[in-house]
Amino acid sequence: EPGSKAVAIKNVTANEPFFQGHFPGNHVMPGVIIVEAMAQTGAFALLSLETNQGKIAYFGGIKKMRFRKKVLPGDTLRLETTIIKLKGSLGIGHAIAFVDDVIVAEGELTFAIG
């Protein structure tokens, strides 16, 4: 939905570079990588607006982020970011990450368009 929502899919494999150190013998996808994926999904939603074509979306911050379950190799991560507020060049998105329709992470992200 241009400007309001974007959905992305990430197939998590055991070959991801971050699994080498997180954690040896007990691989868990780092929360910061999940948040980055949510932010990229939100940026895609914002940049899909015709008025934002050719611009750059900057990730501004995180609010109320909660991690509910581990994301493991073999999981399919579905990322949904809905833009809930857009004023001028600033926006707020509600981001949710799912594995098998179960919420694994959720929170608010802020963006700036430049």
Written description of the protein model:
With 114 residues, the chain is mainly beta. It has one domain (5-113): Thiol Ester Dehydrase, Chain A (Roll). 15% of the residues lie in helices and 46% in strands. The chain has one helix at 31-47; strands at 5-11, 57-67, 76-87, 90-99, 102-113. Strands 1-3-4-5-2 form a five-stranded antiparallel β-sheet, covered by helices on one side. The longest helix has 17 residues, at 31-47. It is elongated and about 45 Å long. The two termini are 21 Å apart.
Count of individual domains: 1
Biggest sheet features: 5 strands, antiparallel
CATH superfamily: Hotdog Thioesterase
In terms of structural class, how would the helical and strand content be classed? mainly beta
* Oligomer description: single chain
| Residue fraction in strands | over 45%
Strand order of the largest sheet: 1-3-4-5-2
Portion in helices? 10-25%
Number of helices: 1
Topology order in helix (H) and strand (E) letters: EHEEEE
Give me the count of strands. Answer: 5
The CATH topology label is Thiol Ester Dehydrase, Chain A
Rg? 15 Å
Query: Poorly predicted ranges (pLDDT <50, ≥5 residues)?
Result: none
What is the arithmetic mean of pLDDT? Answer: 95
Could you tell me how far the N terminus lies from the C terminus, measured between alpha carbons in angstroms? 21 Å
- Note the overall shape: elongated
CATH class category name: Alpha Beta
